[in-house]
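Researcher: Here's the sequence for the chain we discussed earlier.
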Amino acid sequence: MSISKKSTIPSSLIPDGSVLTGSLESEDLSFRQAIRTVRKRKHIVFLMALIIGVLTFIISLVLRPYYSSVAAIEIEKQQNDMMGSALGQLASSLGGGDDVKTEIQTEVTVLQSDALGIETIERTHFEDHQSKYWRVFGGGQRVPSERGLPLSEAPITRERLLKEFESRLTITPVLDTRLIQVAFEDPDPKFAANITNALIDQYIHDRLERRNSSTVQATGWMSGEINDLNKQVQVAEQRLIDYQRQSGLIVIPSAGGNISSQGVSGAATPTVSSPVLDRLTQLNSNLVTAESNRITQEALYRLAKSGDVEALANMAAGLQASSANGSVQGGTFNGLLALRQQQTSLKVQLSSAMQIYGLKNPHLIDLDKQLATIDQQIQEEVKRIVNTTEMNYQVALKSEDGIRKAYDAEEREAYRMNDSQIRLAVLQQEADSTRALYQDLYTKLQESKLSEGTQSSNVSIISGALDPARPLHPKKVLNTVIGLIAGLIIGVVATFVLDNLDDSIVTSIEVENSTGVPVLGSIPHFDQSPRSYGRRNQQMAPVTAPAIGAWIAKQPTSQVAEAYRALRTNLLLSQPGAPPRTLLVTSSLPTEGKSTTAYNLAACFANFGARVLALDADLRKPALHKLTNSSNERGLSNLLTSSLNPVDFIVQDPEIRNLSLLPAGPIPPNPAELLGSRTFSALLDTLSHEYDLVVIDSPPSMLVADSTIMAAMVDGVVVVLRSGVTTRPTLVRVAEGLQRNRAHLLGFVLNAVDTKSAEYYYAYGYYGTEYSKYRS
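Model: Thanks. This is the structure I predict for it:
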């Protein structure tokens, strides 16, 4: 049967390389290509995930557990201190700001400050505790130059301890509340709780000190004034005692012992009856009152000038609760009190409106405007108070100066009377008035100190730190899961990196994409060992080693045999009008399966009814005789070096009818010269007329020139590639070399394809993976 009678399928059905190139380039960038790449090296992904997951779990077991102890505190709104005298309230510390977020953030910053951290470190002996854990590794010890020094004089140790302390401390404000969570981590759960509580205690103590600082400053100023008055009392009393001794008079105090309308008790007035003395006594009393009023007005002016609205409000409230004179003074601040009350009321309304209506409600906007107006009025009222208190102070100062001048004039008049009793009474009154002023200021000083001692903090401990039962980290399960996920991600990245570095050809799409030349067939990978071959068909006796390539004869219904038949069909379709009569089978490098492909392809054509000759032209490493268990003592090399008849060297295949074999024969010293000679060309022409098809097995084209020489003599060339072995540069070089020598390259054969791989499924789809179901 002639092979010229083949299928009439038109050549237009053969895929065009230029058309495939554009579509396949876009397909190569698709998501499907990415999935294929991952499936190709899925073992790397799973192995990487397993390694990193196990390492993460082991590290989690080895790491020291840390416990976190958490406490919560509340920053309350500032409350007015109504205790103590007016001066004590004037010196009270400022309240919190109107902006809650700003206030809370300020307190968070204070809790994270280095000063508070150093105080807590020293209080809890954090340095000794830390060195206990690092002593095993030789760390946690001070440098020699700082041993025995306090932290304030040891900068290296201080910075190290602060860095370690702050790395374990976590300060977290609770959203939309006045609560702040304080947490500290430590390997010792009890120490973690102790240091958290110590930090909060130190914070509250420092906060009270800051709140009392203004009161302390006012108390210091009053103490200085009292010291001066005390010296004046001592001088006045000494003068009175000296005059008594000099004059020999005895002072008899009047009954009742009260000399002033200010309620100053304990003053002794001598029983002197004289208009001058009466006026002098009255002026002295007025001078005491004026001096006291001047000191009070000066204090009020100092506080008003500072612009402390909160302190002024406290002062106004205190003056309203004081005596009648205080009520007169309090009238100056009535407007401020009323505005503060309106401000407080508007803030309450604003807070309620925010919770009920939301931020963009018109009522809320109106309340904001009213609050801004009240704030402006408060600032204007403060300015007015400053002006009023300044005026009152100047009036009191001038009043005191006027009374003092009148007193001095009256005193000079009394002196002119040269009356010992008047002189004695004056000295007695001066001593009593000075002592009364001293006692009055001393009482106010004690009240101010009492107010200082009773100042309360606006920080409340909601929940103290307790010993945690379970460590915060490491979290073994979570870390392991994260490690597995990280391993999967690293594994996927590694697959893409390896895929980019791997330039081997795996699928027919890659071959066509690289060269534009079609792939005529894909041969599945199969084990060529005799033992494996026998297991594939247990009903057949295992063949001998030399016949391992006879898949068409031994396994005609196998997937491998069907692949060779598909290769035969594609070869016929490649040139339906004039099928090739001489076909060269070559490869780029050794061990790519060209000999097995050449033999099985010849067997397929023979089973199709054609007379086929398998010519072993690999005169360097012949292999066809091994596939048929034939002798290689005589063959092509003998024909090319003699004038013998080819019929004497051709042997019939023992398994397949219509298939003959011409072995390579003994290996000659000059194979390329023999294959390029006219003798070989004439022999090939003779054999092509004797047989319907001559299949030539040639050496690898990348190693020797034998294949390139013969390629120009045949009707078509088929190049065998090995999947996963042949590289893209090698493929391109082979295709360019054959086309450069004008060889008729029909296409490629992709050999040893892994039918279980993702690449095979991607390239051939359902029918490639499921074909084995239809094998007998």
